[in-house]
Amino acid sequence: xNTITKHFLKELQQQRVIRQNEIKNLKNAKxxxxxxxxxxxxxxxxxxxxxxxxxxxxxxxxxFNNLSGVISTSILIVGLFEATNIDDDDFVxxxxxxxxxxxxxxxxxxRFRLExxxxxxxxxxxxLIALQIIFQSGISLFHLSGKGSPNLMxxxxxxxxxxxxxxxxxxxxxxxxxxxxxSLLAAAKDxxxxxxxxxxxxxxVLLSYFLKLPWIDSVVSIVIGLFILWSGLxxxxxxxxxxxxxxxxxxxxxxxETVNKVNGVHKVxxxxxxxxxxxxxxxxxxxxxxxxxxxxxxxxxEKIEGKLRKExxxxxxxxxxxxxxxxxxxxxxxxxxxx
Length: 339
Description:
The chain is mainly alpha-helical and 339 residues long. It has helices at 3-54, 57-84, 104-141, 152-179, 182-211, 214-243, 249-260, 294-312, 330-338, and strands spanning 90-91, 94-95, 267-276, 279-288, 316-323. A hairpin with a 2-residue loop joins strand 1 (90-91) and strand 2 (94-95). The model is unreliable at 330-334 (pLDDT under 50).
């Protein structure tokens, strides 16, 4: 077995290990999200029940906010299940041919993107629930006659929700960083928002109770709805950019500068990068000396790929070689020197 073949097999093995680690991380993220669902269900039921007893529009809005967490997290679990279901004989309901089509390893890259797609779907759910809260709270604000202030039972419900959501936020943030999971980090942002809204709800209920101002309850429920709407739109933006193959231009510029400094590279003509879920992929065209041998070009490719993998965590780099027409031909120079 020659050196180039060994390098090629080693590279395939490295990519396979990265894919397996990503699958493992996604499965761990899925297991963590199941705990999220159970806690969200408990909080939603407790808050909704106490909002009726406590006569609080803000607590009811917070309950629906946590209901959105139940729905969005459940959708994410379905997405992660599809993203890690490597033994399935279909792809989102479409049959797969074992004889034709992409290999299992190549197809897995498409499965990773399902995490982003299902996260995008959750953003729609969050936005719809936010609009419902804003609409109902707005109607309530204009029908305050005869409406009493919330009682302390509502404040108790909001306090319980705040403490439980603090635990969920810490869990999602810790596991999101540990497993490098976009879905868990998105869930952490959402749960941090839930902590703020639950805490704000508790303060609102106390103010409304002691100051006897029922309109505060309705106003804060509208604010909560706007906050949920902002969170949903933010998640929508991030997922859309990911699916549209948008990558931070500053990051791409750093990658280009790094490659330009590699000995043997004359210039990076074009660089494109994209994400498949959490997998980062780079394609580029580079100018090189046209007199280089195939082995020298292969070694240069390996050097660039290794550098990008180490410094920028690039999963795969596809390099297209373009001969630099401005480079003097060595044979012509030799003939000129003989003359």
